[in-house]
Amino acid sequence: MYGDPRLRSADAVRRNTRGQAELWKYGISGDAPILLVHLQDGSEVALLRDLLKAHEYLRRKGIAFDLVVLNDHESSYLQDLQNILLQMVEGSPEQSWVDRPGGVFVRRTDLVQPEDRILLEAAARVVMDGADGSLRQQLKRPQIPFGPAPGQIPELTAQPSMRGESAAPSVVRSGQLEMFNGIGGFADEGREYVISVDQDAGKLPPQPWSNVVAHPTFGFAATEGSPGYTWSRNSHDNRLTPWRNNPVSDPPGEAIFIRDEETGQFWSATPLPAGGGQPYTVRHGQGYSAFEHARNGLASTLLLFVPPTDEVKVFHLTLRNDSAAVRRYTVTLYVEWVLGENRSRSQLHVVTSHDPATGTLFARNAFRQEFAHRVAFLDLDPGNAKTITGDRMEFLGRNGKLARPAVMRRASLSDRTGAVMDPCGAIQVTVVLESSETRTLVGLLGDAVDAAAARGLVRKYRDPKAVDDALQQVVAFWDRLLGTIVVKTPDRALDLMLNRWLPYQSLACRVWGRSAFYQSSGAFGFRDQLQDVLALLFAAPRLARTHLLHAASRQFVEGDVQHWWHEPGGQGVRTRFSDDRLWMVYAALQYVSSTGDDSVLDEQVSFLEGRSLQSNEHEAYERPSVSLERASLYEHCVRAVALNLETGPHGLPLIGTGDWNDGMNLVGPEGRGESVWLAWFLLSILRPFAVLADARGDTTQAAQYRAHAERLTKSVEEAWDGEWYRRAYFDDGTPLGSGENAE
Q1: Contact call for residues 405 and 418 (beta carbons, < 8 A)
Q2: Do 199 and 301 touch, CB atoms closer than 8 A?
């Protein structure tokens, strides 16, 4: 089912500045679709009678929505209209659904703040007014056209091409690449992985080959097929374009189209969405991805990267006319806006606009918590005859596909933007190329704190020198970082991965992006990123130190930690996992041992405060507060270890609801299950931590750690099963991973 924009309030969506959480004080969650009806006097209640019948019918068919009734009558002592409305609801089959999710909510307008009235209308999928007649009358609204009105924008008359459509073969040759597998291989000492994509010839990777390009607050994940998807600040909660995780078709949410104005033929600068199965050469490098293609005398190279400190994705498109004639092209940059987690929910609240100062297309979504005031932007420059659209229906056409969008049949875009559209961003410019001439266009997809900051980024990167400098800084950063340690072994494949791609992915993908093709959580995992930064101890010890202290700040005063959390809000999960907190201690020991920087142990870090888990709770998703209590990193580690010194009947540490293996959440939920693995992990920590405690004069703690390590060593050996060690013990004492087990 699809909503009908004719039934929404475009004005309210445009004016709204509040998010979903502001609905909660009225008992409305905002999770279910809302039908909002305004009633001002008793003559309009027939509409409510019809809507109550509709609500009952649809509810019984499994279609849930909140029917919100706003009593717009002026406040009076008797409240006659309010009583009539309540009696109608209570006398209907929906009486048991009053003030329940998917039910009926009767509210007085005079008790709703003006800003919240706008919010309610903006959040509603349908807005009706009793003064506009019956339900039947209000559903008879003019159909919104699926694109520009006939004749508004000239249609192209495609002429037969004198040259025919031909694409140059891929320039990838096996002799130029290391570890070539028939499709791709390493180039330039592993600085690039080069892929020959030729769909018609059956030359495709077995699964999408993605490259995560990021800095701490912004990034994208491109594949060999397309520019991929882009995020800002949080790769889960603030996706600018869609993350789809479809390894079969890899549908893009971003694209650049090139159209030959002489023939009307068009194609995309990347194999998807409109490459037509022709050959492309794709180069994934550290900090960038490039797509090379040649067709009908035009050579194109699309280079994608993110400047080191700014929240913007650069589409650096170079065009070269290899023909003997003057050629005229249009270039169209297209994105599908998300501005949230999931496009199907966020698109209802995305408002696009044209910025007259720069010609940029802006987009915002006020109906969210963390990023409501941020402004996304799209730009393409230079070029003539620039037009834009924020209407995806116009771009694709009714039942259209991105492989053959409707706009490619039209001379230009409509310049239409606004609210209650199926939102997208598209900018089209015209480029004329003399024979052998090369031109460069720069597309920008970014996100800023407000419109002024967005304009600043657009103006900055319209300067070709700023773009070139940013690219050089990106390449230099990764060369410097990845050149710190160079491994040379008898296994060349191992060298290529260890020297470049593994540390690159640890930082760009795991630490900064926390996103990839198959998973895009956007969250910090307490154990996850601590493990990841250990790979950077020698190449980037400062980054490891920074994250170690950051992780410590997610520890509760009681000593346990958030299993994972989202930023910037800090909401996350408090659990009974037993190993999470110990990774902070392990990482601190590794950092001090590797760098000699024991001053990190004296750094003062705050704790968290939050509700403790109830006895029947395994976890709780909440937003804790930052405690006024602070302590050294050493004290944070002491509190973490203290929680793991309790043992069970076999003398082993309690497993809680997991011990690095999240799938073991039912081994010890009652608090008696034990973990052999956790004992080993604790043994790897206790003795070196005792040495560190001694060095700090904390001899009592050091002695306690050594004594406990001795006891654990004996208990672990008793877990020997004859041929291997048992894995754990359930709450009732049953061994796990024993030869006695059925499986």
Answers
A1: no
A2: no
Question: Angle at CA 737, nearest 5°, toward 716 and 688?
Answer: 30
Using alpha carbons, select from 570, 656, 564, 660 the residue that is nearest to residue 606: 570
Characterise 615 by phi-psi region: left (phi > 0), alpha (psi -120 to 50), beta (else).
alpha
* The architecture CATH gives domain 183-481: Distorted Sandwich (2.70)
CATH topology of domain 519-736: Glycosyltransferase (1.50.10)
Where does 534-675 have alpha helices with state H?
541-552, 580-595, 633-642
Q: What is the largest CA-CA distance in the chain?
A: 90
Q: Is 579 exposed, middle or buried (0-12, 13-18, 19+ CB in 10 A)?
A: buried
Q: What is the pLDDT of residues 681-719, one digit of tens each?
A: 999 999 999 999 999 999 999 999 999 999 999 999 999
Q: What residue spans define the domains of the chain?
A: 5-139, 183-481, 519-736
Please tell me the distance from the alpha carbon of residue 240 to that of residue 415, in angstroms, as a whole number: 21
d(CA 424, CA 371) in angstroms, rounded, equals: 19
Cα angle: 336, vertex 342, 347; to 5 degrees: 55
**Secondary structure of residue 466 in the 3-state scheme:** helix
- Specify whether domain 5-139 bears CATH 3.30.420: no
361-412, pLDDT tens digit by residue?
999 999 998 899 999 999 999 999 999 999 999 999 989 999 999 999 999 9
